[in-house]
Specification:
Layout: E1 5-11, E2 26-27, E3 30-31, H1 37-44, H2 50-55, H3 57-65, E4 79-84, H4 92-99, H5 120-130, E5 136-140, H6 143-157, E6 161-164, E7 169-175, H7 176-195, E8 202-209, E9 216-217, E10 222-225, H8 233-239, E11 244-247, H9 250-253, E12 261-263, H10 268-281, E13 287-292, H11 294-300, H12 305-325, E14 330-335, E15 354-359, E16 364-370, H13 371-381
Parallel strand pairs: 1-13, 1-14, 4-16, 5-6, 7-8, 11-12, 11-13
Antiparallel strand pairs: 2-3, 4-15, 6-7, 8-9, 8-10, 14-15
Helix pairs in contact: 4-13, 5-7, 10-12, 11-12
Bound molecules: 1-O-phosphono-alpha-D-ribofuranose and manganese (II) ion (2 copies).
One manganese (II) ion is lined by residues 296, 301, 349.
Length: 394
C-alpha cells in the first residue's frame, strides 16, 4: 500500500465571506451579501488561533473577502487558499458532496415560510405513520425554540413536532421517553421515503428530554439524507481498496456510501479524540473524513458569538495536536461546508466562501479554488483515479 494518508476535516459552518452569489441567498428576508462568519466573530472579539493561522487562515480570509479579522493574519507556512461553491444550496450535504467531488445537479425542494409549511396531505401522512391525530409545528423554526414552545403540548397530545428551516429539510422533534427514540427513528425513515422523491435533502430526528421549562435536545440526532447522485471521493477510495474513516456525521451526510468505519461521539470533544487516534492509527493509503458540527449547531444557528469564538480557539488546539501527530506522506486539509455568521440576521446558514488550509505540502498559496478541487487534490495525493469535475491544486 502506498506510503500516504489523507485527513479531510470540515469545520462545519466556518465560512470566510466573499461568496460572489451571496445576494441570491437569504436570512430572515435579508440577502447574505457581506456575511462573513470568521471575520465578524474576530471583529467582535480578536481570535487566538495560532495553529490554523500559521497555515494561512488569516491570509485566506483576506483573499476571500478582504475583511479584517483581528488576531489572525500571520505569514502563511502551509498550503492556503479560499474555495467558492457552485451547488445551489448553502446546506451541509451540498457543501460536503461538492467537497467530495459531486456538485449538486438539481434544485433542492424548500418548504415555504408559511403556516402550514408542509402540504396538507404530507402532514396527514406523517400523522398516519406516527399513529397520531395530527402533527404539531408545521412551520419554519429554530429547533431549540420550538421544543421550548411546543414541548408541553407534545407531551399532552403525543403528536410529533414537525418543522423546517431555510435548508431543504424536514425535522421531527419528539420526547425520547414519552414518544420513544426507536419510534422517532422509524417515523423519520418512513417520512424520508415520502420526501426524498420531492428532492427534500434530509429528514432529521431531533429527540429531546426533560419537562416543561427545561426541555433539552439529546445527542441522539439522526439524519436521513438523500444519497449523493454520483460516486464521491469516499466511494472512489473504497472501490480502490482503501480504508475510509468517517468521523462525526460524515456517514449520515453521505447516506453511508463509501464509508468503511464510523467514529461517532456525543460531542466534538469526543470526535477530536477519534481524529487524534486516527492520526496515530489510520492505515497507509487511507482517507479520514471528519466533520466538527458544534460550530454550526451549538453556536452559529444560535447566533452565539462568544460561544463560537471559544469553540474556534478550542478547535485550533485540536488542529495543533493533529499536526503534531502527522507523518511524512500525510496530507491534512481543513475546510468548511458553508457559513453560519452568528452576527447575521435570522438563524440560518450564510452563503460564503470557505478556507482551504493544508498541511504536508509546505508553504504554498493556491489562491481561489472550487470546492470540488479539494476532492481532486485528495484523490491525486492518494494516487486514486480522478474524482469529479475539479482540478488538483497540489
Ligand atoms: O434549529 P435547528 O433544529 O438546530 O436546525 C438547524 O439544523 C438543521 C440542519 O443543519 C437546519 O435545518 C438548521 O436550521
Ligand atoms: Mn454544515
Ligand atoms: Mn446547520
Amino acid at each position: 500500500m502506498i506510503d500516504r494518508r489523507a485527513f479531510l476535516i470540515v469545520m462545519d459552518s466556518v465560512g470566510i465571506g466573499g461568496a460572489p452569489d451571496a445576494g441570491g441567498y437569504f436570512n430572515a428576508g435579508q440577502p447574505d451579501t457581506g456575511a462573513n462568519t470568521l471575520a465578524h466573530i474576530a471583529q467582535a472579539r480578536p481570535l487566538t488561533m495560532p495553529h490554523l493561522d500559521a497555515l494561512g487562515l488569516g491570509a485566506a480570509i483576506r483573499l476571500a473577502s478582504g475583511d479584517a479579522a483581528p488576531g489572525l493574519g500571520a505569514r502563511p507556512q502551509g498550503l492556503w487558499g479560499a474555495a467558492t461553491q457552485i451547488s445551489r444550496g448553502k446546506d451541509t450535504p451540498s457543501g460536503h458532496w461538492e467537497i467530495a467531488g459531486v456538485p449538486v445537479p438539481w434544485e433542492w425542494h424548500y418548504f415555504p415560510d408559511t403556516r402550514p409549511a408542509f402540504p396538507p396531505d404530507l402532514g396527514a401522512r406523517i400523522a398516519q405513520e406516527a399513529g397520531t391525530g395530527g402533527i404539531l409545528g408545521d412551520e419554519h423554526a429554530s429547533g431549540t425554540e420550538i421544543i421550548a414552545r411546543l414541548g408541553a403540548e407534545h407531551l399532552r397530545s403525543g403528536w410529533p413536532i414537525c418543522y423546517t428551516s431555510a435548508d431543504s429539510v424536514l425535522q421531527i422533534a419528539a420526547h425520547e421517553e414519552a414518544f420513544g427514540l426507536d419510534r422517532l427513528y422509524r417515523l423519520c425513515q418512513a417520512v424520508a421515503a415520502m420526501v426524498h422523491p420531492m428532492r427534500v435533502g434530509r429528514v432529521i430526528a431531533r429527540p429531546f428530554l426533560g419537562a416543561e421549562g427545561s426541555f433539552a435536545r439529546t445527542p441522539n440526532r439522526r439524519d436521513y439524507a438523500i444519497a449523493p447522485p454520483a460516486p464521491t471521493l469516499l466511494d472512489v477510495a473504497q472501490d480502490a481498496g482503501r480504508a475510509t474513516h468517517a468521523v462525526g456525521k460524515i456517514g449520515d451526510i453521505f447516506s453511508h456510501r463509501g464509508i468503511g468505519r464510523l467514529h461517532k461521539g456525543r460531542s466534538d470533544a469526543d470526535l477530536a479524540g477519534h481524529l487524534l487516534a486516527l492520526a496515530d492509527q489510520a492505515e497507509q493509503g487511507s482517507l479520514t473524513f471528519a466533520n466538527f458540527v458544534e460550530f454550526d449547531s451549538l453556536y452559529g444557528h444560535r447566533r452565539d458569538v462568544a460561544g463560537y469564538a471559544a469553540a474556534l480557539e478550542w478547535f485550533d488546539g485540536v488542529a495543533g495536536a493533529l499536526m503534531a501527530r502527522l507523518r511524512p506522506g500525510d496530507l491534512a486539509i481543513f475546510t468548511a461546508d458553508h457559513g453560519n455568521d452568528p452576527t447575521w440576521p435570522g438563524t440560518d446558514h450564510t452563503r460564503e466562501r470557505v478556507p482551504v488550509l493544508g498541511w504536508g505540502y509546505g508553504a504554498r498559496e493556491i489562491g481561489q479554488v472550487g470546492f470540488a478541487d479539494i476532492a481532486a487534490s485528495v484523490a491525486a495525493h492518494l494516487r486514486l483515479p480522478p474524482v469529479g469535475p475539479g482540478r488538483s491544486f497540489l
